[in-house]
Amino acid sequence: MTPDNVARSRHAAQQDTVLWLFVAGILAAAIGFSWNPTPFAQALGVVFIACALAHAALAYGARRALILFVACNAISFAMENLGTATGFPFGVYHFEVGAGLPHVGLIPIVVGPLWFGAGYFSWTVASVLLDGADHQLDRPFNLITLPVVAAFVMTQWDLVIDAPNATIAKVWIWHNGGGVFGVPLTNYVGWLLTSWLIFQVFALYLRRSDLRPYSKLSLKLPVIGILFYVGAGLTHIVPWVMGQTGEAVDARGYGWQVHDIREATVAILLLTMLFTALLAALRLLRRTSQK
Q: Which residue ranges does UniProt annotate as crossing the membrane (predicted)?
């Protein structure tokens, strides 16, 4: 190996070290503090959205990333406004968080970008699960199945976060409560529908694009996507470990023990998001070992 090659290898290794330290730092902060809706947690949410945008730009190009961002915001704001005004498709609810922020209709402006952040990393995980289906959307099977799988991956995230945010943190309020610790089943059906609409629009757009298969270098991107996806759920382990106690009352007047909600949230996390992320990581590992 020539001295120039040695220098380039050393520089690449240093860049990788900086990248992984940056990712680890963001994830550690998010896992440690995002469960509590403080200004710091809100700042971490902005960082999360920025990371999703940067990841999408690297994976698909800036133009495609911007189109996904715009499409996700347009669809999510439309569906959220429809939901708060009519109860369809999520159920009857309203947001308590972001009262001082600008609104798009009845919805705080931060909601759409958060849909994008969670949605984009869910799309990344689903793409890995389906062996890089996002780069093979000329196949009708992938065009149909990838948005469906991504919608379920996305809704798993909501299944983890919704109950503690609606009952303990009261970020949003379900007017009639619901059987899943104060959250109605209609909410999750609404998430499936809204997520599918977003992902189907994006898939139809990407089908027109000439996306190249992943290279060895770009395999870092799906790994980071998997980590950001599961990291958004792991934050709920922290308050459970802290042993929070007390009672949370939903809008119907039903009381729920805080510790029970926290423990149920961790159980759901382990059997949904964590398992899905593990499957994606194993699929990615198998793909790399076959090269």
A: 18-35, 41-60, 67-93, 105-129, 141-157, 188-206, 218-242, 264-285
**CA count, 13 A, side-chain hemisphere, 253:** 0
Q: Three-class SS of residue 71?
A: helix
Cα 147 versus chain centre, distance: 14
Give the residue from 77, 209, 56 showing the smallest Cα distance to 127. 56
Compute CA distances 53 → 61, 62, 68, 225, 234, whole Å. 10, 8, 9, 11, 21
Q: pTM for the full model? A: 0.93
The residues near 218 (Cβ < 8 Å, ≥ 6 apart) are 58, 59
- Phi/psi for 290 (5° steps) reads -85, -5
CA angle 256, 257, 261 (to 5 degrees): 85
R_g of the chain, CA atoms, integer Å: 20
Task: Tell me the C-alpha distance between 52 and 238, whole Å.
Answer: 23
**E-strand stretches of 101-141:** 103-104, 107-108
Domain boundaries, the chain: 3-289
- pLDDT 10s digits, 156-202: 999 999 999 999 999 999 999 999 999 999 999 999 999 999 999 99
What type of residue sits at position 166? A
Tokens 């949370």 belong to 248
- Are 181 and 167 in contact by the 8 Å Cβ rule? The answer is yes
* Strand runs labelled E in 127-222: 172-174
